[in-house]
Specification:
182 residues; alpha/beta
């Protein structure tokens, strides 16, 4: 439900990243915001709900800022790869795919994480693939074993939610590891 802090939040991210030698990866949702977000971010994230926002994909493709493309929660692998093509066709070859699960009939976890897609994509595309077990599962205690399984499956990297006090996080506390767990 937390919608972020807009440009003030982008400034805060950039300041923290510069201070600690980190990169900024942040979500952009509107094609009109790509240029502004790109002024602060080292990588533009296209989230699951925006994976089929074709004007956004084209605008991100017109930049040279790397793009993290999360799989839509109801997208097939083919649809996901075609979404990546929108970015690539714009001239931006810096695309990373992120598996974060798809919706299923089973509600025991937030989504169904499809780890078989990691080695399959190795055969289907040249693009790197990372896995986001935090968002896929929505349950912090499941993140470490699934993160390990993701690496074994061949993932090039992981997104792990970490918060110093998950119980009091403004968003995503249930899926966040605390610092010691991380």
């Amino acid at each position: 439900s937390f919608q972020g802090l807009g440009e003030e939040g982008l400034k805060m991210l950039r300041h923290a990243a510069d201070r600690y030698g980190l990169g900024v990866v942040t979500e952009v949702m509107d094609p009109r915001d790509v240029e502004r977000v790109g002024q602060y971010a080292d990588m533009l994230q296209i989230g699951t709900r925006s994976m089929q926002n074709f004007p956004l994909l084209r605008e991100a493709g017109a930049t040279r800022t790397p793009v993290l493309l999360k799989r839509g929660f109801s997208a097939t692998v083919q649809e996901w790869l075609l979404a990546a093509e929108y970015v690539l066709l714009g001239g931006n070859e810096n695309v990373v795919l992120c598996e974060r699960g798809v919706r299923s009939f089973d509600v025991v976890t937030r989504n169904m994480l499809y780890l078989a897609v990691v080695p399959l994509l190795e055969e289907m595309t040249h693009l790197p693939v990372i896995v986001d077990p935090s968002h896929a599962l929505g349950i912090a205690r499941l993140v470490p074993p699934i993160a390990a399984a993701s690496i074994v499956a061949g993932a090039h990297g992981l997104i792990i939610e970490v918060h110093p006090d998950p119980a009091n996080a403004v968003s995503d506390g249930a899926q966040s590891l605390d610092c010691a767990q991380f």
